[in-house]
Structure formats: C-alpha cells, structure tokens
C-alpha cells in the first residue's frame, strides 16, 4: 500500500472498511476543475512571495494543466486509497513532476483548500441555475405572448374567484422566478470571499499573500477570520435555501399544470413530446414531467434539511462531518436545474384550449366582485365617494350576495337577472350594470396598478419582454 500524504506518524495503514467509509473521491472528484484553479493560484502566489522558485511554479502549473487534460479525456485514474480529490490530484502531480509538487501544499490545508474549491463550485453552479431560471422566464413570457386576451378563471381556495387574463397568471410565475434568481445572486455576493490561506484554522507564519490568491480566483476579498473561513457552511445553507424556495415555486407550477391537463379542467393540452403513457391503460397520456417537478421538489427540500441537520451543534472549526456537505449540494443543483429545464420545455409544448376555457367561464359567478364594486362606484354621486348616498362595500357585498343566491336558485348567471330583479335588491342598479357583467366586461373594469386589466397586464408584459430581451 502507498503511504498516505499524511502518513508520517502512522505505523499501520487504515483498514479497508475505514478507507471505504471515509473516502470522498467517489463524489468530490466533481470539484477537480476548481481544485486545480485553486492550486494554480496558490502556486503562483508562493512563487511571487519567494517561497518556491519560478521553475517549480512552472512545473506545477504545467503538471496541473496536464492532469486537467487527463481528467477531461477520461484518462485519469481516481484512487480510493488517495481519499479525496485534493490528495488524488496532489499525489498524481507528485508522480508526474516529482519534488516541486511536494512544495504545493506549503501554507495550505485541505480545510481551506476544500472550501476554496467548494465556494468556486457553488459560484459557477449559481450562474448555471440563474441561466436556466431565465430560460424558464422566457418560455413563460412567450407562452403569455401566444395567448393574448385569453381569460381564465382565477381561483382562491381552488374555488372560482374572479376572471383573470391568462397572461397575468403566467407572469405571476415569472415574478416568483425573478425573486428566486435574486436570492441566488445575493447569496453569490456573500459567498464570494476567499478562504484560501486560512490553512487548518489558525492561518500561517509563512509569508503568504491572501489578497493575491483571492484576486486571481476572482473573489471579492480574502475572508477576514481564518477560523470562520474553515468552519462556515452558511454559504451552502443559504444556497440550498434559495434552491428549496425555487423548488417550491416550481412544484406549485407543476401542480397547476397537472390539474389543468386533467379531463376535469381541460385547460391545457401538453403535446405528445412532453407526455408519457401507461403500461396497462392504452388511452393514457400523462403530464409526468410536471408531476416529477412537483415530486423532485422533495429532494431539494431534503438536501437543505440534510445540510441544516449536518451543521447543527458542530463546534468550530473544521470537522470531518462537513465532508457530508457535498452530495446534498450536488444533488440540489442537479435537481433544480433539471426542474427548471423541463418546466421550460413543458411551457414550450402546451396549448391552451380556448374553447374549453370559454365554455368554463360562465360558471362560478366570477363577475360578482365587479358587481359589488359597481354599486360602490355607482352610489358615490357624480364626484365624490363620501356623499351621503354612498353604499358601503359591506352593504354592496351583501346585496350582490343575495343576487348570487337568486342566480343559484334560478340556475342562471348574474347577467341573466332582469333589471327589475336587481332593483328589488337595491334601487341603485341601473341599465349600465350589464356593462359590468360577464367575464369580458368584468376584466375590462380592472385598472389598479398590477391588476388583471388588459392595459395593466400589457405594461407588465412589456416590462418582461424588454427585461428578458424577447423579440
Ligand atoms: N474530503 C474532506 C472534505 O470534503 C477534505 C478536508 C479533509 N480535512 C481533514 N483534515 N481530514 O471535507
């Protein structure tokens, strides 16, 4: 057996069971690129500070370059007995270039090394997720553009509430995604500080330049406190929290589309290319991708909970427990990217069933609230809302409630009531009431900022088309 890089004080090698249990190479090899970046920066700094010669530096840089090439070509042999990505690369470098490689770990510990790698990895992962997030936003906005003027029932408690423009509803998801991206970018700002040079926990007496490595690696600055630098995992907690919130949003979108694709709703038809069938029921066509978006949100939440539980009660500074931070993070990122991508794919492959939706609109008295507003507006007198004849909203709510009850007993819609029937409930009703009834009329009456009125929705849509650069 090869002596471990840390093997000096040991008289026996670890047992196979311990080696297998403690290794992380099976998953942390995903950090290879960032590990090599970090090592290159460190070697350059050591040379600049006169701790290694420029020729040692050059052979280290060349060796690392070759190792990266080998890894990418699939030629590199990852060894479990070399424990993790850091020692695999360092030992391979030593095999390749000999003595200069042994100087690379000067003024460095795996504790600051792994965090440097991990922060760099998370930084890239955030950028990837934000790109996928934007692709979904674009898909939703394009879906909105394709469906101008389409009114759908808006729900609260999953009961019919008020008519809304489909565009308005789709843009609600775009807003959520925008905040999701914002949370990730905030997290990126906070995580972009460099732990390298914190060494094991206490820093070093050697003349390193932490500002130089931080700058090469495009961190904002070195972390101020070396103990914090090797202990902190709140950057991952924050990152996975942001992913969990995104996952929740996507699970809601998933649920909505699964419902809408049902026979009972029938609002959307997903194309065959985003549907799957049943192994027994020949007629089935299922919206599986969105069901799995809903389902996979569980993993992303679970990954966060794993990390929270992992960190709870850990003393400063590094503890080996923390090696367990990688897999949930990798899983969270892979899953959230998949969820965003498939949601965009689904959005590009659904059609709204205008006729079916149109037929569904008369049910549920979606215009009742508009009618209550009518009474408030109508009774205000020609100029002011505070005239004596004003109907308080609570009263108009009650009057319209009774109108709805009348419709329920007659099995008709509000617009089917005669003026006399309405006047029997309140003398304020006038001929113009019919301009407020029916979903088309009702939607036209909305005018508050951010509302479902067509002008308001058009300006929201304009905002997103411009912001996302859609043509
Ligand atoms: N593989 C370890 C991890 O991912 C690297 C740091 C190990 N440090 C140590 N002293 N054992 O956390």
What features would you describe in this structure?
The chain has 471 residues and is mainly alpha-helical. The protein has three domains: 7-103, Fumarase/aspartase (N-terminal domain) (Fumarase C, Chain B, domain 1, Orthogonal Bundle); 110-211 and 220-356, Fumarase C, Chain A, domain 2 (Up-down Bundle); 368-467, Fumarase/aspartase (C-terminal domain) (Ribonucleotide Reductase Protein R1, domain 1), CATH 1.10.40. Helices cover 58% and strands 5% of the residues. The protein contains 18 helices and six strands. It has helices at residues 16-22, 25-28, 32-48, 54-72, 85-97, 110-146, 166-191, 210-216, 226-231, 234-260, 288-311, 326-347, 354-360, 368-378, 393-410, 419-423, 439-445, 454-467, and strands at 151-156, 159-165, 193-194, 221-222, 268-270, 350-352. The strands form three sheets. A two-stranded antiparallel ribbon has the order 1-2. Strands 3-4 form a two-stranded parallel ribbon. A two-stranded antiparallel ribbon has the order 5-6. The longest helix is centred in the first third of the chain and has 37 residues, at 110-146. The protein starts with 15 loop residues before the first helix and ends with a helix. The mean pLDDT is 94. The structure holds arginine.
